[in-house]
Design brief:
By secondary structure, the protein is an alpha/beta fold. It folds into 4 domains: about 15-145, no CATH class; about 155-220, no CATH class; about 240-405, P-loop containing nucleotide triphosphate hydrolases (Rossmann fold), CATH 3.40.50; about 410-465, Alpha-Beta Plaits, CATH 3.30.70.240. The protein has helices spanning about 30-40, 65-80, 105-115, 130-140, 145-160, 160-175, 185, 210-240, 255-260, 305-310, 310-320, 335-350, 370-375, 395-405, 425-430, 455-460; strands at about 15-20, 85-90, 120-125, 145, 245-250, 280-285, 290-295, 325-330, 355-360, 385, 410-420, 435-440, 445-450, 465. Helix 5 runs antiparallel to helix 6 (about 160-175) and helix 6 (about 160-175) runs antiparallel to helix 8 (about 210-240). The chain is elongated and about 95 Å long. The strands form 3 sheets. The protein has a 6-stranded mixed beta sheet, sandwiched between helices. A 4-stranded parallel beta sheet has the order 2-1-3-4, sandwiched between helices.
Length: about 475
């Protein structure tokens, strides 16, 4: 019987292959038997045919996750791509095999598992070189995808705007260009299933020059997007409205928090990379200042460099933001490693030195003992707030932390005397300032208020005096 998805489309069955190239990670019960079989094999280092091409063997930097935790995260990526997991295997080696990454013996084992489970594809939790990809596809009875291809496919599923689609297409083409040999079918947009959402130009299958021209064209289109965004920012900067950007690991709850703070209704999903296109909405902290909040794409360990490059236009919101809200999953068992991966990407964007507020989300999933542990630990360098975007707990504290971290358009306390007949000025004060006291003197209203310097400047003719100390949020 064929499995079908929500809309009747066939759900593809996938064999997941985890890779541990350190040899030091602990072996889980689920992967123990597979590891024993791999350890008992004779020499697996005999290289397969490499077509005379030498490829760089890419060993990702340590992410802080052990191989089993990494495979668990990879499992969620597969589910986000709409796949069904048919089997999981783990290969532990001291070094990658140049021809197949995992060794000939393991390839034979995977071929048997894929055939017996009637799998449609084999997914590797590691990047494959062009030669490794060709050798594995020749040896296995189904399609082969690596980690980057899977992430690109998820991005292709979730891109909704023209800008997002351009960025995904550019990333796909730049990744596929050195992998064209024998990849004609996989590049066609006529195919179906995970990893077959090609860039949308069927003529690209056989002509590298056409692909390069398409890449150049996409870069020109994205440059135009950058110009439009720059113009929009310049218009925003003409009226000082600070921007706060949400950043964080994928599935940390950024979109749920965005909806909670803004009252918006953007897509929130437990699927990874549900948000690709940036969104801006106004929020109002306790000071009544107008602040723009931006929701951005989530990060993940070993985020493909092509995606960081292609999504530069989107991630410019992070670069230009005054404050970053680093949303973290407080219930995650490897939150420290996720934090390190986010900071790595922020470093690539030259945004690591920006003021940050650490937002520990999902505290509704913690028990009282775990909450106490978070509250009592040593405070980090950045401000830290515990919240639940799902229930709304901690939102007031978060807005106050945002207020305190803002440094543009500082708050000023002043006394104003406004004619009662000037309803527009009084409405402006009530809408944009915090009024501490109000009393009436004949036809005048005397107010003690605090508000942003930009608004105080517009009401300067009504100001009596400024307090000696300026309050900067």
């Amino acid at each position: 019987m064929t499995d079908t998805g929500r809309w009747g489309a066939r759900v593809e069955r996938a064999v997941l292959v985890g890779i541990d190239l350190t040899g030091t990670s602990r072996i889980s019960r689920t992967g123990l038997e597979s590891a024993r079989r791999a350890a008992s094999r004779p020499d697996e280092n005999t290289p397969a045919e490499t077509d005379g091409v030498e490829d760089d063997i890419r060993v990702p930097e340590s992410s802080g996750l052990d191989a089993d935790e990494s495979l668990a995260e990879f499992r969620e990526l597969v589910r986000s791509a709409g796949g069904q997991i048919a089997a999981e295997l783990m290969q532990r080696r001291p070094r990658p095999d140049p021809a197949t990454l995992i060794g000939r013996g393991k390839v034979e084992e995977i071929a048997g598992v894929a055939a017996s489970t009637q799998a449609d594809l084999v997914l590797f939790d590691h990047d494959l070189s062009p030669t490794q990809l060709r050798n594995l596809e020749a040896a296995l009875p189904c399609r082969v995808l690596d980690r980057t291809q899977l992430i690109l496919d998820i991005f292709a599923r979730h891109a909704r705007t023209r800008e997002g689609q351009l960025q995904v297409e550019l990333a796909q083409l730049e990744y596929m260009l050195p992998r064209l040999t024998g990849r004609g079918k996989a590049m066609s947009q006529l195919g179906g299933g995970i990893g077959t959402r090609g860039p949308g130009e069927t003529q690209l299958e056989t002509d590298r020059r056409k692909i390069q021209r398409r890449i150049d064209h996409l870069k020109m289109d994205l440059d135009a997007v950058k110009r439009v965004r720059r113009q929009q920012r310049q218009r925003r900067e003409a009226v000082p409205v600070p921007t706060v950007a949400l950043v964080g690991y994928t599935n940390a709850g950024k979109s749920t928090l965005f909806n909670r703070l803004t009252g918006a209704n953007v897509l929130q999903s437990s699927r990874m990379f549900a948000t690709l296109d940036p969104k801006l909405r106004a929020i109002e902290p306790p000071s009544r200042r107008r602040v723009l909040l931006s929701d951005t794409v989530g990060f993940i360990r070993n985020l493909p460099h092509t995606l960081v490059t292609s999504f530069r236009a989107t991630l410019e919101e992070v670069e230009q933001a005054e404050i970053l809200l680093h949303v973290r999953d407080a219930a995650s068992s490897y939150g420290a490693e996720q934090k390190a991966q986010v900071e790595k990407v922020l470093g690539e964007l030259d945004a690591l030195s920006k003021p940050r507020v650490e937002v520990l989300n999902k505290i509704d999933l913690l028990d009282a003992h775990q909450r106490d542990g978070l509250a009592q630990r040593e405070q980090p360098h950045h401000a830290e707030v515990l919240v639940s975007a799902q229930t709304g707990e901690g939102m007031e504290g978060l807005l106050a932390a945002i207020d305190e971290a803002l440094f543009s358009d500082p708050l000023i306390e002043a006394e104003l005397r406004v004619p009662q007949s000037d309803g527009a000025a009084l409405a402006m004060i009530d809408a944009g300032m915090v009024v501490h006291s109000r009393r009436y003197e004949g036809n005048l209203v005397r107010l003690a208020a605090s508000g942003p310097a930009s608004l105080m400047g517009r009401l300067r003719k009504y100001r009596l005096r400024d307090e000696a100390n300026v309050t900067v949020g």
